[in-house]
Automatic annotation (TrEMBL):
One of its GO terms (biological process) is long-chain fatty-acyl-CoA metabolic process. It catalyses: a long-chain fatty acyl-CoA + 2 NADPH + 2 H(+) = a long-chain primary fatty alcohol + 2 NADP(+) + CoA. The lineage of its organism: Eukaryota, Fungi, Dikarya, Basidiomycota, Agaricomycotina. Residues 15-276 form the Thioester reductase (TE) domain. It is an enzyme of class 1 (oxidoreductase). This is Fatty acyl-CoA reductase. Belongs to the fatty acyl-CoA reductase family. It comes from Favolaschia claudopus. SUPFAM superfamilies: NAD(P)-binding Rossmann-fold domains.
Length: 389
């Protein structure tokens, strides 16, 4: 593959979700590592609020990002028509933007189906409509999730669409009644599935890349080691919940997948960002996965000092109560392997977009990550007036 720097120096990117975990990592790489011509970064309410949010997650990098003068913050709201963008700014973007990357999402698993559609589906369709007026656009990137295919049995999941029903009919039914006639992990996974189908079926002329990361984990190295955004890494959330109140470790499974070999598939956020950027550069369209089965949180699961290692059990018998956090991470009870065949050709790539782990020690990384999470719990407990853990 060619050097990515000349390619990105010719690109003007419109990025949504740039103050989130993955979006912030993409923003950093585009501005600081790839010397992108320009990045329009959508922020809510004001530029000052966007800068403040970035300062929270990248305190030692934000000044350099601003000094590079590559990023123009665009005030808007994905839930509004035309994203609420000032018409003059939108006209400028429509004239210059070459790549749209939509990474904005409300990742809460507690939203109702209708609310999840309003926050995670309709904005994508609106942006695709807006994209038709972008004169130089060469790529529309939608960040989905590997868990859109919640309805599949355990085993290999390919980089393709697996319809969970008629998307148009399901969307209509959800907005009318708030219900659907099929089971699903949670509204987020179902809505992302519908969004993928609707985006592709409604926009046949748009050059679309759908990126499906697995569970986002803290960064290996960029913007800095262990970079993340509070609440954006489900594995870290689960670890901290366990530290605060140990769980039984029991997960209900169906007779179709009682394997006990379940992999909690995490991908470091900087690796996920590199995968997406590599495919943008390579001109990929269609669907790609970004996962890392080697990051098995069960193998390195933390425990409190003096307590025994938690025993994870996968039970078909639902008469036995499952752990209190099992509803939080239903994917723990599943055993999917997400194919990343489309990215194999990038394995030997070096430089700013390398996805090779090299000498990275996953075990040590998880151990250090756990210590950091425990320190954070201790700090919060201390603020609450208790130092006991």
């Amino acid at each position: 593959m060619d050097d990515p720097l000349p390619f990105f120096r010719r690109q003007t990117i419109f990025l949504t979700g740039g103050t989130g975990c993955l979006g912030g990592c993409l923003l950093y790489k585009l501005a600081m590592k790839l010397d992108t011509a320009k990045v329009y970064a959508l922020v809510r309410e004001s530029t000052e609020r966007g800068v403040s949010q970035l300062k929270d997650i990248m305190p030692n990098q934000i000044d350099d990002i601003l000094a590079a003068k590559k990023v123009q913050f665009v005030v808007g709201d994905v839930t509004k028509k035309n994203f609420g963008i000032d018409p003059a700014v939108f006209t400028e973007m429509a004239r210059t933007v070459t790549v749209i990357v939509h990474s904005a999402a409300d990742i809460s698993l507690k939203n109702s189906l209708q609310e999840c559609v309003r926050r995670n589906c309709l904005p994508v369709l609106e942006l695709a409509t807006l994209a038709s007026s972008f004169k130089r656009l060469s790529k529309f990137v939608f960040v989905s999730t590997a868990y859109v295919n919640y309805h599949l049995p355990d085993g290999v999941v390919q980089e393709k669409i697996y319809p969970a029903g008629d998307a148009e009919k399901l969307l209509t039914q959800i907005m009318k009644t708030g219900t659907v006639p099929v089971g699903y992990l949670h509204p987020y996974s179902l809505v992302k599935n519908l969004t993928e189908q609707l985006l592709l079926s409604r926009n046949p002329r748009l050059l679309i890349l759908i990126a499906r990361p697995t569970v986002i984990a803290p960064a290996i190295s960029q913007p800095y080691p262990y970079y993340s955004r509070h609440g954006s890494c489900p594995g870290s959330n689960y670890v901290q919940r366990y530290m605060e109140a140990p769980d039984s470790g029991i997960f209900h499974v169906s007779p179709l997948h009682p394997t006990g070999t379940n992999i909690f598939d995490e991908v470091p956020v900087d690796i996920a960002a590199n995968v997406i950027l590599l495919h943008i550069m390579d001109g990929t369209t269609g669907i790609i996965h970004a996962g890392a089965g080697s990051y098995d949180i069960i193998d390195h699961f933390p425990h409190q000092p003096g307590s025994r290692r938690p025993e994870f059990r996968y039970l078909i018998d639902k008469r036995v109560a499952q752990g209190r956090y099992a509803e939080f991470l239903k994917i723990f009870g599943r055993d999917w392997y997400f194919s990343s065949a489309a990215s194999q050709k990038f394995a030997a790539i070096e430089g700013p977009l390398s996805i090779a782990l090299g000498n990275h020690d996953a075990g040590k990384f998880m151990s250090d990550r756990t210590r950091r999470l425990r320190d954070d719990v201790v700090r919060r407990r201390s603020l609450e007036g208790s130092t006991k853990l």
